[in-house]
Amino acid sequence: MTPNIATTKEQSARLLQCGVDPETADMCWYKAKAANKEGYTWILISENYQKRRNSDEFIPAWSLSTLLSLLPKEIDIDGYAYRISIYFENPDEPVIGNQWCLYYKPKKHNEKSRIDDVPMSAPDLIECAVLMIEWLTANNYKLKQP
């Protein structure tokens, strides 16, 4: 797997479907003429999407740091405070293995988790963040503005 530095075009489309403001994107995909070929290719550029938003040749893209800045540090679930946490799953773990996990855990250590479906896991931390944003928006939690 090649590491990503920003959302793919498909992940960006999923974020837009969730209502994520494209103005928060700190990068963009640019539709450029392919060198020595007919047609076009998409190139990721580290230019703020806001400068290019008036053209259909540009698609917003979010870096990992910007995605993480959109996630609320704490959420309330059934009257209990949950704080965000990130970790890399042990590669020897037979169930998940080689996965990033992004989840909300009870703020107080003595509280038992009241939910089972908040952890998101994927081999790529950007995908974890996209999954978490999908879960948050589907459950009516507001994202932060960077």
Explain the overall architecture:
The chain is an alpha+beta fold and about 150 residues long. It has helices at about 10-15, 65-70, 125-140; strands spanning about 25-35, 40-45, 60, 75, 80-90, 100-105, 120. It has a four-stranded antiparallel beta sheet, with helices on one face. A three-stranded antiparallel beta sheet has the order 2-1-3, with helices on one face. The longest helix is centred in the last third of the chain and has 14 residues, at about 125-140. The radius of gyration is 17 Å and the shape is elongated. The mean pLDDT is about 85.
Number of helices: 3
- Rg from Cα: 17 Å
How is the main sheet built? 4 strands, antiparallel
Shape designation: elongated
- The N- and C-terminal alpha carbons lie at a distance of 29 Å
Q: What are the segments in which pLDDT stays under 50 over at least 5 consecutive residues?
A: none
Q: Taking strands numbered 1, 2, ... along the chain, how are they ordered across the largest sheet?
A: 4-5-6-7
Q: Nutshell version of this structure?
A:
With 146 residues, the protein is an alpha+beta fold.
Protein traits:
4-stranded antiparallel sheet; 146 residues; 3-stranded antiparallel sheet; alpha+beta; 21% helix; elongated
